[in-house]
Structure formats: C-alpha cells, structure tokens
Amino acid sequence: HPTLSVQRAALLPTEPGHGDPAGQELPLQSRPFSSYGSALHINLPQAPRAGQMLTLLIDYEAGEGPGVCWLAPEQTAGKQKPYMYTQGQAVLNRSFFPCFDTPSMKFTYSATVKVPEGFTAVMSATSWEKQKDNTFVFKMSQPIPSYLVALVVGDIVSADVGPRSRVWAEPCLIEAAKKEYDGVIEEFLVVGEKLFGPYVWGRYDILFMPPSFPFGGMENPCLTFVTPCLLAGDRSLVDVIIHEISHSWFGNLVTNATWGEFWLNEGFTMYAQRRITTEVYGLPYTCLEAATGRALLRQHMDATGEDHPLNKLRVVIEPGVNPDDTYNETPYEKGYCFVSYLAHLVGDQSKFDAFLQAYVNRFKFQSITANDTLAFFLEYFPELKEKGVDSIPGFEFDRWLNTPGWPPFLPDLSPGQQLMKPADELAELWAADGLNMEAIEAVDITGWRTYQLVYFLDQVLQKSPLPEGNVERLSKMYPKISKAQNAELRLRWCQIILKNNLEAEYSKVKDFLHSQGKQKYTLPLYRAMWGGSETARALAMETFSATAPQLHVNVQNYVKKILGLQ
C-alpha cells in the first residue's frame, strides 16, 4: 500500500538535468528508454518471513521523467495557467514514483497532494477530499497496476452529468463538456453492467485534457482522461467513451500480466465496446464502426507488411525495448477478431455474454496471460474442449497468438451494408472521370452519422488521387465535410487534401495540427506530408517547428523519426 506524498508545490518544470547526472549529457527528448528510471535495490537488515508486512519510507524527488508532463499556459485550452498531468501507460510511472512498474503487480494506494492556490488536484482514486491549505487527499481502495495511477493538477472545475459521474475540464470548456455528456455516461454504464457484471469502481468521471494530450482516452480508473477532440458539439464521438468505460472490466479489472499480450486488454475491450454500441445504437451502426476499425488494421498491415513481428497477438518485447514502441492496431483489431472468433465457436451470443461475465468474475483484480484466458474458455465450454476447437487447422489458438498477419477469421459485418452501400456508391461516383452530378446530387448525406461519413471518406481516400478537379468540387458540395469541426472528419479530409495534393486547402492541415496533438491524428498526417510533394514536405517542417513545443514528448519523437530529424 504505497503512500504517495507529493510535496512539490511549484507548478513549473525544473531544468532538464537538474540533480540528474544522466540528464546533463542528453537532452530530455532523446533519453533512451533505460533512463526512465533505474532499479532501486533495498537491503533489509534481516530476511523477512513470508507474508510479513513491511513499511518502507522512500524519500525521492520526481518531475523530469517522461511520465510527468508539465504544460506551459499556452499548451492549455485556457492559456492562462500551467498544468501538469501524469501518463503511466505503459512503463512511464517509474519516473513519477517508486513502484513495481509492471502490469503483473496490483496494489491499493493513497496520496496527499499539496498544490498552489488557484489549482485543483485530481487522481484516479475511489475517494478524494479537499483539506485546508489547498491539500487534497486521495485513496484508491481497489488494487490496480502501477500504470493506472494518475494525477492532474490544473485550473479545472467539474459539473455533474449523472448519478455517479461528473465531467472535469478547464473553465472555458466545462459548459461544452456538460452539454455533450449529460445523461449519456450512466446509460453506457448501465448497459455495461448488464453485460459484464457490476461496475466496481464507484464513480466514473471524465477529465477533458488540454489539446496536447496525445491519446483519445486513457482509462485511469474512476477518472478517464480524454482528448478535447471529443467535444464535437453533436455527441458524434461519444463511442470513444464507451471504449474507455469498457476498460472498467477489461484492462482495469482483468489485466494483461505483460505488455506483450496487450490484446487481452484491448481486444476484449474492443469486443465489449461493440457489444455496448450494438445494445445502444443497433447492429448496423456497430458493424459500420467495426468496418472503419478493420480499414485501420488493413492500412497498418499494408504499411508494415503482414508478416511484421508486431502483427502477432503475442509480441516478444526484448529487454530494453519500450513497450510503447510496439503500439499499433493489431492488439485492438486483430484482438477483436480473435475474441469474435471465440464467440463464433460458442455460436450463441447470450452464452458468450455469460462467459464474459464469468471470466471477469474469475479473474477480477488479477493480472493474467493469454494461456489463462484460453484455458478458462475451454474449461467453461467443455463441449468445445472435447471438439478440440483450439487446434482446428488454420484457426489454431497457437496460430492466432504466434503467427503474424491478417486475422484467420473476420466477424460478419454485413448488417452494416445498409449504411456502407450508399457510401460506397457515392465514393464511386466521385472517383469517376466525368462527374455525374445528377446522380451525386440525388444522394442526400444530411442524415448520415459521423461513422457513415468517415466510411465514405475512407473510400474516397482509397480511390485518391481523384481525377483532376473532383476534390475541389467535392469540397464545395459538402461544406459539412470540408469545413467540419469533428476531428475524425477533419483527419480524413486532411488526408484527402494531401493525397490529392490540393495545395489550396493545405491551411486546413496546418490548422488541424495546430489545434490538437493527438497521436492518432498527428502521425498519419506527417506521414502523408512526408510522402507527398516538395510543398507538402515543406508544410510538414514548418508545421512541426511551430507546434513541437505543444506536443507530448513521445509524439515529438515519433514525428522527428518520420521527418528524418533523428
């Protein structure tokens, strides 16, 4: 039960290298993974007995490592006050506090955090209390792995959006956050509980991070961190929250024991997310969203080559390799396909739902391996074990885990056809040499939801570059797309601009990259610019030099790699 005492009141990063000999030779950005922390060896005066409780008091100072992010006022939404947050996944919390920094260990924690006047502290904890002198006291009463301990200090306020949920944000965003999420979180939690069993974490709050936050969401228990990109104004991106809510069972409650089996967190969470969206929005919508996920997996595997070792569900992470550098679509979407394959073997949705509840109940608060998961599956369905479903030629469990490449089984997404077919047909029309404007104008896209538009744009991107002049006309015809504020639409539109070398709209790419720093939006656009014309490359360099200070250090490094600056 580590007690975390964060005494540091100044909200300013000290100079890199302060009090750290390693830091003097290397600037912070280029530190190797090994310098995220060093092992702390403690010699005990006498050998302890098995099961004996020990209390260790470790006096330490932290703040320069990559797990602690210090933002200058200009990197926040309000631009008035500094902000700090921690990001533990995968192995960054070792630079925040001394811990067993592996997902195989779980512990409860408490923390006392004193911050300057005008700032508020929040943590991923089951209880928090404000005391005098702007001191906050937190307790996490459920055991969690180190990567889920998170702290934020900033000029933040909250608003209730449900019986066990509130939104936290900078004052300038709180109204938008409340409007977008009022009432919806409870709906998703109730469906999740119906499917997967009790929600054990008490509260489910959401914290809207500054625009430089590199992820869509981070499932810190009781307090999910999300990108402000989710404030689309029309609730069109709330399914990201469904993904993070699903982690309350898969990832946070039942956890991968090693980062090499990250699919146990993410593949199950994708499956759970899509079970919830099926209940809430219906099967066609879920199949359409899953089709966009499959397209991302296809893009990833085309880019790396199918037989790349990262395209396995069980990845071998060599000592000294940063697990973050193995991050890609495979554990999410190929993992989803494997869980879907298990459901397909069962052949009855309600039976498989019951299995998922039993699985969560069996392994809650534990960290497990894929072998544990699959052994439990076969034990739960003895008739499948008897049939030898783990070794059906071409679909062997071992092949799923250890052979790179495209998933051997793909769930049937045909119910999404009613939404995909019109989008496919419209994309075809726009890719034609002579535009058939009459046919194009006959298609009314005003009622299309975000994922139908995203799917349409993915098809247009695949068919790009389009014949001369087509993209300009498409841009004029659909201001709902070309002038969208929705980040998912903006990403695709920027990719289409670059693939078609539409220099007249390059400013949109620049504006989008200036407005946020999410890794999933930032890296594909830099790759597209770097793979494009001279002008596109110049745009990449110019945009990066202007926005680098507002990006997370990991994202800065990935962009530098793309631009050949490392």
Automatic annotation (TrEMBL):
- InterPro entries per the UniProt record, alphabetical: Aminopeptidase_N-like_N, Aminopeptidase_N-like_N_sf, ARM-type_fold, LTA4H_cat, M1_LTA-4_hydro/amino_C_sf, M1_LTA4H, Peptidase_M1, Peptidase_M1_C
Keyword presence, Signal? no
Which CDD domains does the annotation name? M1_LTA4H (cd09599)
Q: Which GO terms describe its biological process?
A: proteolysis
Q: What is the lineage of its organism?
A: Eukaryota, Metazoa, Chordata, Craniata, Vertebrata
Q: Which cofactor does it need?
A: Zn(2+)
Name listed for the protein in its UniProt record: Aminopeptidase B
Q: Which UniProt keywords apply?
A: Acetylation, Aminopeptidase, Hydrolase, Metal-binding, Metalloprotease, Protease, Secreted, Zinc
Q: Name one GO cellular component term.
A: extracellular space
Q: How is the cofactor bound?
A: Binds 1 zinc ion per subunit.
Per the UniProt record, which residue ranges are transmembrane? none
- Which positions does UniProt annotate for Zn(2+) binding? 243, 247, 266
- UniProt keyword Hydrolase, yes or no: yes
Superkingdom assignment: Eukaryota
Q: Assign the protein's first listed, main location to one coarse class.
A: secreted
Q: What PANTHER family does the annotation carry?
A: AMINOPEPTIDASE B (PTHR45726:SF1), LEUKOTRIENE A-4 HYDROLASE (PTHR45726)
Q: What class of enzyme is it?
A: hydrolase
| GO MF entry, a single one | zinc ion binding
Task: Supply the EC number(s).
Answer: 3.4.11.6
User: What subcellular compartments does it reside in?
Assistant: Secreted
Species of provenance: Furnarius figulus
